[in-house]
Design goal:
With 451 residues, this protein is of the alpha/beta class. Helix content is 41%, strand content 21%.
Length: 451
């Protein structure tokens, strides 16, 4: 069955309260904020609260990667660095997805330790579930960039709700809690407080909630509009998923699919979202395009091409108005079968895009082997092109390569007018991002089409 990948519905770094305009503000390896910039951002949040005469409250996670030293010893520091870059990418995409309505930051503290902080108001139960979902995402296999196969990391996470706590004191308490909370203990999530962990809603109960939500058609679709660079014309949208849980609040796609995997309901969730998105898109005027994300799980099914094409026909959509997006970082399975499956749906008119290109280490073999029509440049590829000449040079090189391969280019995460101006100058074809429009509910997207 088809899976709609956990794509972002969040506001990303623009909402985070810090700017990565200066290379000194970023960790040089991962591109996340440096610890100094994290301190500055948190203190800025505190100052803003003081100006409003409001109490400063922030939720924080400190993620420590077990086994990173083992990877360095076994495979070399290049493999370890590659794993850290991929973890940073997963953290950024997770935060983009889950913290849509409030400020957040993600920073590399040191080595294999990362800080995620959010101003979002949420219950302890929700914060703990977000930590569980992020830990699951980080623990997925990571491609070994210096050899065959994959490596795995074991994340441990301390959680804290800070009320007017000094930034350094917050970090010290969370760091010192690792030895206390995890020594001789197999668990991976712990709160830095005397309060007992939340157990009101077990995994089994939450999985049951999801199954019931599917029955009640409570999983929502939102559409991220896409525009042509030349002429600023609306050309379609990417379908994203979310769930408004009655107690946990808004659940983004990352957590949504984590719950589905635990409940062994990924196939049901995938089909539900896919059919819903297609039914909505069939009402759009032509030649408006719908982009859907698929994963290696989908591609590993021998019946995927047949089932997917049947789904399009049943919804009443035209195949030449559909684009399938494959996430580069997750193509770790049988590339031969993947190619055959994609060729089968492309033969019927479906377009193919390689998503998140440039996040982590690029696998250029995919560009050679897969029958692609587009590449989608990850937001990290453009986030600093207006300020850093090296970032701009890398961006230009990727664009030139895509043009040489006769691939169209979609830029993701465009958040400033200067970024839009640069991608236009460099001849990108399409873009999406908060500069032009945030993800929209179906009725609001139809209003946008009508304008």
């Amino acid at each position: 069955m088809m899976t709609v990948s956990p794509k972002s519905t969040g506001q990303g770094r623009e909402a985070s309260g810090f700017s990565l305009g200066s290379a000194d503000a970023r960790d040089k390896l991962t591109g996340l904020a440096s610890i100094a910039q994290a301190r500055q951002t948190i203190e800025g949040w505190r100052a803003n609260a003081a100006k409003r005469d409001a109490q400063f409250t922030m939720h924080a996670m400190l993620v420590s990667l077990q086994r990173i030293d083992t990877i360095n010893v076994a495979f070399g520091e290049t493999a370890g660095d590659g794993a850290l870059i991929e973890v940073a990418r997963r953290i950024t995409h997770f935060a983009d997805d889950e913290f849509a309505a409030s400020g957040w930051l993600a920073a590399r503290v040191s080595g294999g330790t990362f800080l995620i902080a959010s101003l979002e108001r949420c219950s302890r139960e929700r914060w703990q579930w977000l930590a569980e979902a992020l830990a699951d995402a980080i623990a997925l296999p990571v491609s070994n960039v210096v050899g065959e196969g994959t490596v795995r990391l074991w994340p441990r996470v301390t959680l804290m709700r800070s009320v007017d706590l000094d930034t350094d004191a917050l970090l010290d308490r969370m760091a010192s809690a690792f030895a206390e909370k995890f020594d001789g203990n197999a668990r991976r999530i712990a709160w830095v407080s005397d309060d007992a962990p939340i157990h009101n809603r077990s995994s089994t109960r939450l999985e049951a909630d999801l199954i019931a939500a599917l029955d009640r058609d409570e999983i929502e679709i939102v559409f991220q509009p896409q525009f042509s660079v030349a002429g600023e014309r609306l050309i379609g949208a990417e379908a994203l998923a979310r769930w408004q849980h009655p107690e946990l609040g808004l659940v983004g796609a990352s957590t949504l699919f984590t719950i589905a995997e635990r409940a062994d309901h990924v196939a049901q969730l995938s089909r539900h979202i896919s059919e819903k998105a297609l039914r909505l898109a069939c009402k759009w005027p032509q030649p408006m395009r719908l982009s859907l994300n698929i994963t290696p799980t989908d591609l590993s099914s021998g019946n995927f091409a047949r089932d997917f094409l049947a789904m399009i026909e049943e919804a009443g959509c035209k195949t030449n108005n559909i684009t399938v997006e494959i996430t580069e970082q997750l193509l770790l399975t049988d590339l031969v079968q993947t190619t055959e499956t994609l060729e089968a749906i492309k033969a019927k008119g479906v377009s193919l895009a390689l998503d998140d290109f440039g996040a982590g280490f690029c696998n250029f073999r995919y560009l050679k082997v897969l029958p692609l029509d587009y590449i989608k440049l990850d937001g990290t590829m453009i986030e600093n092109i207006e300020n850093d000449e090296r970032d701009l040079s890398v961006f230009r090189a990727i664009v030139a390569m895509a043009k040489a391969l006769e691939l169209k280019i979609v830029a993701e995460g465009v958040e400033s007018e200067e970024q839009r101006r640069i991608i236009a100058r460099e001849k990108c074809d399409f873009y999406q991002g908060f500069l032009k429009c945030e993800p929209l509910r179906p009725e609001r997207f139809m209003d946008l089409i009508g304008k």
